[in-house]
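Hello,

Our lab assistant flagged a job as stuck in the queue for most of the afternoon. It eventually completed. Since we weren't sure the result was trustworthy after the delay, we are filing this so someone can double-check. Below is the sequence as submitted and the structure that was eventually returned. Let us know if re-running is recommended.
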Amino acid sequence: PNDSSIQAYQTFMKDSAQLFGAPSPDAAKFAIDMFNFEKRIAEITPDSNYMRNPVKVNNKMKVKELRVMSINIPWLEVLKACYPNAGVTEETEILVASPQYTADIAVIMSTTDRGSLNNYLVWKLVHKFMPFLSKAFTQVVDLYRNHLTGAQKPTQRWQFCAETTEMFFGHLLNSLLFQNQDSSISQNRDGVVQRIFVSIREAARSRVSQSHSLDYYGRQAALDKLHGMTIQVGTPDILTDRKFLKIMYKDLSVQKTDFFQNIQYGMSFIRRR
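-- returned structure --
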């Protein structure tokens, strides 16, 4: 509890709450409550080793099976709200990264009062948007970053603008960069990477074909997969097509003189995509 990063995070939450109008005692209580709630979530969240294991994280089940595992959470309603055009029903098959987590998070939600759950959702929303608010808010964000990473100065304005544009227009910026590259250098690089990839793929196929740790069917499946593997180097042709890019970004609204409104439009666009 006395760790400097924990105290910095609680100070960050307290200062943020005060900026949004909470009195100091209420803001301090909010910070402690939120930290303890997030700590409970962190304790049941699968670690990175688990999440990197494709066998463990690909658990196919139906929505109704998920509901049985964590009956306190209205999964069907949540999924319909997230994916309104997908036609999700109780018979829809989905991939669940961690069945144990879904059961544990349901217990946490059922043993937490509604006020704390509401505060948590509001805090996650505020935390997401604070870097895009006015100077008073970004100074609090920068102070927390300083405590956490040692960064002595805030991100320079040009870098902040570049990163923000990249977040929403990544493919478009990539296309512009590609158009301004020397084509001969690009082609030479692509050829070198392709040759390296083919060499690695052939070495892997040779090892798999001689492996005794796989049975015949497992070996054939692995060889088929390796045979079908290709690599995309640099920008694919479709992302240099202006018509395709227009279609990709047609639902992203932009207003020239309203930065924060554009951030909201952008976040909404990313969610829909």
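-- support follow-up --
The delay was a queue issue, not a problem with the job. The result is valid. The beta strands are 59-62, 93-96. The longest helix spans residues 183-209.
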